[in-house]
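Internal tracking record. Fields below are filled automatically when a chain is submitted to the structure queue. Please do not edit lines marked as system-generated. If the sequence contains nonstandard residues, flag them in the REMARKS field before resubmitting.
Queue: standard
Priority: normal
Entity type: single polypeptide chain
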Amino acid sequence: MTAPTGTALRLYGWAARGLGLIAPYALRRRLARGKEDPARWREKLAEASVPRPEGALVWLHAVGLGEVLALRGLILELSARRPDLSFLITSTARSSAEVVAANLPPRTIHQFLPLDAPRFVGRFLDHWRPDLSVWAEQDLWPNFVREIHARGIPLALVNARMNDRAGRSRARVGRLYADLYARFRLIAAQDEASARALEGLGAPGPVLRHASLKVAAPALAADPVALERLAAALGGRPCWCLGSSHPEDEAVALAALAAQRQAGEGSLLIVAPRRIERGAEIVGAAQAVSLVAALRSTGAGPDGADVYVADTFGEMGLWYRLCDRVLMGGTFGPVEGHNPWEPARLGAAVLHGPRTANFAADYVALDAAGAALEVQDAAAVAAALGADLSALGARGQALAEEGSADIAGLADRLVALMPAVRNG
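SYSTEM-GENERATED OUTPUT FOLLOWS
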């Protein structure tokens, strides 16, 4: 099937050829600064580190860590319909590989996505030969999209989220996005506003709607040995978690904890920062308000600490199991919120600040169902922590389970794009 290739897409294709020449040098510089995985950075040059599995293969791509983890629920639904399928997940950030490794579904491989230069695109597709390509990201790599389509591999864009502002920004590159969207066999968005924005960019309509993949994602994994040790170290001491935190969130949480201390309460605050390299900074902020803090990365335990800084990758499943209440990070500052479904899926009561635009529909749904509670400031956080929040946790867990039904319908549509039996 032919698809339009306008001026913007042609210019991008020519410019990307130069990327293939400079990419090895640029990646080596990033490697020297610790921004690439020393063992796997050559995957970004399309040098696969593992062989392709036999049989039919579905390739799914996402960029952000949350989006990568959200693919797991969709993979489980696809696998239930086609038990013969294997799966390849690609992402770009080094942190995504470290976390997803502990949460991979059965028959699933992770690789880094190569840079979008023709020489790498061709090498990647020659090796993996996917039977279906699923993109769970609003930003597309044009050379990949063109070559996947040219090889007759079905393309799907799912979990799309785009506001009007982002749509207007992308409209400045002419018909580039319209030419790319024309190559997709299925396009589905998380909400009505995103669907309208995609259609405004030229996506052939009507764009489908489905629940966010994050709603249906299975519970984050946790090392059972580490969970048992930490539970023993706590000895029944109540704890609460500040998940995926930023400085603005930490200031509120630490003030709330200080108020608890003045009232003679002894709960432990576990702070899991969005950027783990900020651990020492958080310890300093805790000490500034006369709180004792310990860093998990140093091997310290929570014993005797007011604040336990979980500055490690891939352990959010631990903290959301240990804590029956979670204050979501990003909701007191310009980040505008992080994924509330991860703690909700594990039955933790979700508290959040007033700034949730990044997950607006999700927080509205949780709040309306009495499955989450908005808190405006440190005083409100402290008051909420002293209340019985068990009903919030139960309702949030129930909502997360309901979201899985919508993703099941999406999986049906994706399976229908694939041949029943792999050729060759």
